Amino acid sequence: MTVTKERPEVRRTSSPFGEPVSRGEEENRGEVRHTPTREMPPRGFAFVRLVRTLRENWAAYGELVLALAAGVLMFLSLALSTVSRPLAMGAYILTYAVGGYYKAREAWTILREERKLTVDALMFGAAIAAMAIGYPFEGAMLIFIFALSGALETISMARSRRDLSSLLSAAPTEATLLREGREERIPVEEIRPGMRLLVRPGEVVPVDGVIVEGETTINEATITGESVPADKETGAEVYAGTLNIGGAVVLEATRRPEETVFAKIVRLVESAQAEMPPAQRLIERVEGYYVYAVFGLTLLLIALLPTVFHVPFSEAVYKAIVFMVVASPCAVVASISPAVFSALSNASRHGVLVKGGGYLETLSKVRVVAFDKTGTLTFGRPRVTDVLPAPEISEESLLEILATAESRSEHPIARAILAYADTKGVAYGAPEKLTAVAGQGILAEIAGQKYRIGNARHVSFHELPAEERSLWEARVEALAEEGKSVVYIARDGKILGIVGLQDVLRPEARRTVQALKRMGIRVAMLTGDREAVARRIAEELGIDEVRAELLPQDKLDHVRALREAYGPITMVGDGINDAPALAYADIGIAMGDAGTDVALETSDVVLMNDELERIPYAIALGRSTMRIVKQNLLFAVSVIALLIGVNFGFSLPLPLGVVGHEGSTILVILNSLRLLGIRPATRASNAEPV
């Protein structure tokens, strides 16, 4: 297995997904080359893809095609009525059949399985009644416009679900397994942790894993929503459903296919689309009773208008049919679902997973946002800022001891010390013995000498002789005033030096806080860190309220208090030690960190790319969704009331009633689609030290 750096002749080949890939792209810098013969697609593969594409397009646009065909047939029927009435009636019947196919099938299915009449049945009843009393063109127009509005609603829902479809289509069905030096194509379902898989340029990563050979660039938009590809090298994690756009790599699977971050995201998005706001559930419950009421009132009008108000029978039937059309709640029913689906689609496209339409409504009511500090407002990755050795030891020697002792640790502080030592060019080895002391630090044996590295308690700082303690106290206090953490290094009961570390503030933290305050939202910070550090960060960011030195249970108590004081609250955390507070808050928002299990399971909203500026965006999206839903409902109800009033106060022709009623439905759907265009604010890339 060799690594090539030459630029070979570019030759077009075919990827496992049937897309052309250049040989030059396959053999980029850092690619792991494999030479076994590639399997060719079976004969008829292109035909199968064509059939599949046609089927998918028909599912999305078939209803629109039949609706437009019904419109053509309607005008053809009108033209034939001047030539031959029997031919015209045949064309009208064909118009009803073509335009009403989808809705009639849907109404019949619900009637058969749920024993319930729907709005669809109401419309067909009106159309058939119109034909029966001698108004076939008006009935055909009703079928045509009703079918057209239904088709537009189907397309809008399909467009809103497009992000889920793109997620599902991103999942590969096969993977290349490396077994005893040979390549073998296997179904993704057979992958198990520990298997080594080859992922070529242009292929989708089949399972979560760690790169063990090669380096590449991965487009992680399906997971994080981030459009900028990420560079990956040996040891880096990669996720199923992401696209390899660099060199070929070998990865070792770390999860089963059904346990991957990608699979969990798909399940979350599916469940989110199935979850509707309370208002939508109420409308769906009321819809059945409303339809029966309209049917009953229509029959009552046919009976009462001639007998009580002495309206001619034919005119009474006509007014009753117009009433049946304009009183139908089509626009009301379509006021919520397209808006919610559009908002959920928009959010997932921008790396925000909202776990249901109901949470959009709650987001719109949020009055206070509480942030955790470490890992939320900051990156949670400390960096070394100060190395202060004792007079008898050099900075380089102190760093060598520190780096050697920490070389086997995975603690964030250990990683920060090693990174700093690397930048200083300090050579280090490994400790002979290493013992972790929970909550204090480590004990390391190096070259026969024992070192204590950790906090003040670990090195018994307060038991040192007063003279030595006074030598360090001023330095420690100076670091603490700057909001820095201090690590002590001691040998044989004597301090060899101290190290100052500081977390890094997320570059968008201040912009996020200011954006929330402009929206009229109060901002709080709940942290387990020291009071001085918390106050300094809060002052820098402009945070309204600060609570420091809190345990997880304390955070829950403060979330409860903030909720009682200000109203609905959102808690933002990393999903680990914030779990109680996230669960209690009206909305729990977790920093996804590329989809950690805890973040996906403990929150109502997940920021897949850990971008704080998605929080004002999510709240604004919730507010816009509810505003559009209210606009839709008000408009729909107003149009129904207006058309009913005109029908009985004056005289409303059936064609105008059809246009007014179905036109309002179309306008409501188009208004909902505006939610697809909302975009989050841009972000900066620089990081500011806390």
UniProtKB/TrEMBL annotation:
Signal peptide: none
Keywords: ATP-binding, Cell membrane, Ion transport, Magnesium, Membrane, Metal-binding, Nucleotide-binding, Phosphoprotein, Translocase, Transmembrane, Transmembrane helix, Transport
Domain named P-type ATPase A: residues: 171-270
GO cellular component: plasma membrane
Membrane topology qualifier: Multi-pass membrane protein
Family of this protein: Belongs to the cation transport ATPase (P-type) (TC 3.A.3) family. Type IB subfamily.
UniProt protein name: Lead, cadmium, zinc and mercury transporting ATPase
Lineage: Bacteria, Bacillati, Bacillota, Bacilli, Bacillales
